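Late entry, evening session. Most of the bench is empty. Finally got around to the prediction I had been postponing all week. Sequence below, unchanged from the version circulated by S.P.
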Amino acid sequence: LGSVTVICSDKTGTLTRNEMTVREVYTGEQLYEVTGAGYRPQGEFIPVSPSPSDQRQDLQKVLTIAARCNNARIAPDESGDNWTVIGDPTEGALVVMSLKGGVDVPDGSRKVVFEIPFDSERKAKSVIERMDDGRTVLFHKGAPEVVLDKCKEELCNGEIRPLTAERRQAIMQQGSRMASVALRVLGFAFRDQPDGSDGEFPERDLVFAGLAGMMDPPRDEVRESVAE
């Protein structure tokens, strides 16, 4: 053991809790810390260095995309104390984030027109849904650089404006900072009334909405175990 410098161990469920949790959200020009642990849908969004303008409308859009571009759901046990995810853990974490922000997660009655599933090559996923008011909306999420490449505008202070080179750089810097503190980062975008007249819904000319950084937190006893 005196010669050991690296310990290899299975991580998920052993060193970590196997409970993906969103820790930060960046939208508009505002960063939020997200409180609460695990899959219990209780927590708050605390602005970090609050901006002079209220960007909660931008935050709600990110939470809406996260809830709509999603196939997971969460459910409590009989006691109501423990919550589990039915579906992908990452999508489950996004469902919990949306519920914390008061955004309803759609049930089986929603009208999904088309879905482009996530895969490791595309690094993105889209869901096209017909809303109650008759609009068709494309909800998109994926790796930040992939999402940004498909966007030409961004949502900021409730307004859609051109996505400049400076803002692209600022967004990627936020994503890099999140990654540097061990967060897994996803980007979110949308587009109203995507062209689907020929049965295709191209993922282009999107409106960037924000980033979310999540992690599978370590078990409380891990630090002591590794030190020992």
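Two things to note before I forget:
Residues 56 and 160 are 15 Å apart (CA to CA).
The longest strand covers residues 206-215.
Will write this up properly tomorrow.
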